[in-house]
Write a structure and sequence with these properties.
By secondary structure, the protein is mainly β. The protein has 1 helix and 9 strands; from the N terminus they run αβββββββββ.
Amino acid sequence: MKKCIITFALLMGALGAARAQQATSIGLTVAYGRDRLLNNNQYTSAAHSAYQAGLTANVGLSDHWAFHPEVLYTMRYFDTSNDESLNRDINTIDVPLLGRYHVGGLFLEAGPEVSFPIKAVNEDAANVKSELNGVVLNYVAGVGYRFGQGPSLGVRYEGGASNVFKNDASTVLGTGKFKTSSVWLVLAYSFGS
């Protein structure tokens, strides 16, 4: 939780510094995704629905460029097609730090994302948070369209730069790649310019 607060404070500081330069907007976002772990020898992942909701900001840096940070609450369900006892439900706080390039209403976005797990359970609802890494790094790339001053619709891909689960024999998941691979449909509404 301390890491989340520090990250949020740094975001707000960056927003305050950048706000003096160009127009800034804040907003709300919700997303539906299909999420899975990259397959490895022991864990065969199946795609599953995932959900996000949170706050966004868009800080204009020039006529076309903007800094677009978000703070998202994410619910992921990692399911395996070969052993139900390895299924995991995970809730995280995700902080994408995106750069956006705007041309009219169209925008392209990309950047890193830091993810902090806050809850993880198995099929029996037992706490398995100790199986997760405390901080996970991902990358995000997407495209979207903003309709006038408020609503926008986009599609993004989120890939794992680091493992969601610990990559060692201390967990029942075993060793291997445990990086996320997600596609999101994102609906957002911005307040401001």
